[in-house]
Amino acid sequence: MMKMGSVAFLFLLLIAFSGPLQAQDNPPLRHPLVSADVMKEEVTIGQRTDGSPVKITLSTPKGESKDKLPVVLLMHGGIPAEIKAPASIWQVNRDWGTVIAASGAAAIMYDHSLGSPKRELDLALGQLDQVLGWLSAEGEGKGLDTKRVSVITFSAGGLLVPSLLDSKRPLAVGRVVMFYPSTGVVPGSPSEPLTSAELAARMNLKRVAGLIAERKLPLLFLRAGGGHIKGLNALQDDTIAALLAADAVVEVVNLPGAPHGFDSRLDSAAVTSAIDRAINFSIRD
């Protein structure tokens, strides 16, 4: 049996570096469209290195669409191995798919193996490439517009964003939204001593600020003004300053006093507005 001290440590670790504790208490997305009637389909698209399947949950509007649907790919944060419930079944992530579909687009949710506190970037990128490869090959047949693909990341999912710019990705991403993101390895975090300098550089968004500006890739940051993770907001602000200095296309929405994981943790008009802004930025701007 796990001792209470170990349980308490895991609780704090997951809150601090993997986003909200969705797998434990399963809060919903704070948005009025979470109960909308949409289509959800689970599709097996590949295989992980351990032989288990790579699956996606595809959420789409009900009924026929005369136009192909823009696509929003949802990328969760890093999850410690001790947490067995996959992010794709957490209520907040299922709700994100529902709200995006109810807003007239397609949402793809999948589970990746970035992990926490040790980061497995290449493992996670291999799974991301399977999702993008499936979308490139099968998306048009599903009524999806593969030329209008956006990504919404949460917490440590932001560490995958620099690699999205790599030309070897199977499909290009046109817009990126980042909720309370890790834009690099947070100084003083449990991940720092477990991350090599080379890996840290690959996950550092500031490093690719010039390339983001050159490609005119629009970015939207949703900042948790009351975030409790030591050093995270300072890291975000340093990254945002570098992006602005490079003249990148950047929009920042700060939610004063909001906690990390506010999309499921804080029921307020400001949170609903931030969610709506993220979706509009992804599929309509």
Key terms for this structure?
285 residues, alpha/beta, eight-stranded mixed sheet, 10 helices, 34% helix, disordered N terminus
Descriptive overview:
This protein has 285 residues and is of the alpha/beta class. It contains 10 helices and 8 strands. It has helices spanning 4-17, 22-25, 91-102, 121-138, 161-164, 197-202, 209-215, 232-245, 262-265, 269-283, and strands spanning 38-47, 53-61, 69-75, 106-110, 144-154, 175-179, 219-224, 250-255. It has an 8-stranded mixed beta sheet with strand order 1-2-4-3-5-6-7-8, sandwiched between helices. Residues 1-24 have low confidence and may be disordered.
Question: What is the element string, with H for helices and E for strands?
Answer: HHEEEHEHEHEHHEHEHH
Share of residues in helices: 25-40%
N- to C-terminal distance:
51 Å
The 3D shape can be described as: globular
- Arrangement of strands in the largest sheet: 1-2-4-3-5-6-7-8
**Strand runs, count:** 8
Structural class by secondary-structure content: alpha/beta
Count the DSSP helices: 10
- Tell me the major beta sheet: 8 strands, mixed
Detail the topology: elements first, then pairings.
Layout: H1 4-17, H2 22-25, E1 38-47, E2 53-61, E3 69-75, H3 91-102, E4 106-110, H4 121-138, E5 144-154, H5 161-164, E6 175-179, H6 197-202, H7 209-215, E7 219-224, H8 232-245, E8 250-255, H9 262-265, H10 269-283
Parallel strand pairs: 3-4, 3-5, 5-6, 6-7, 7-8
Antiparallel strand pairs: 1-2, 2-4
